[in-house]
Amino acid sequence: MNATANFEEIRKWENVEVERSASEAQKRETEDLRLSQDIVKRYLNPASDTPYQLEYAYHLLGDVSGKTVLDYGCGAGENSVLIASHGAAKVIGIDISPELVELGAKRLALHGFGETAELRVGSAHELPLEDESVDVVFGMAILHHLDLQLASTEVFRVLKKGGRAIFLEPVRNSKIVRFVRNLIPYQQPDVSPFERPLTDAELEKFADRFSASRSRAFSIPFVNLVNVLGLSENILHKAIRLDGKILRAAPFLKNYASVRVVEMTK
Question: What is the CATH number of domain 3-173+193-217+261-265?
Answer without folding.
Answer: 3.40.50.150
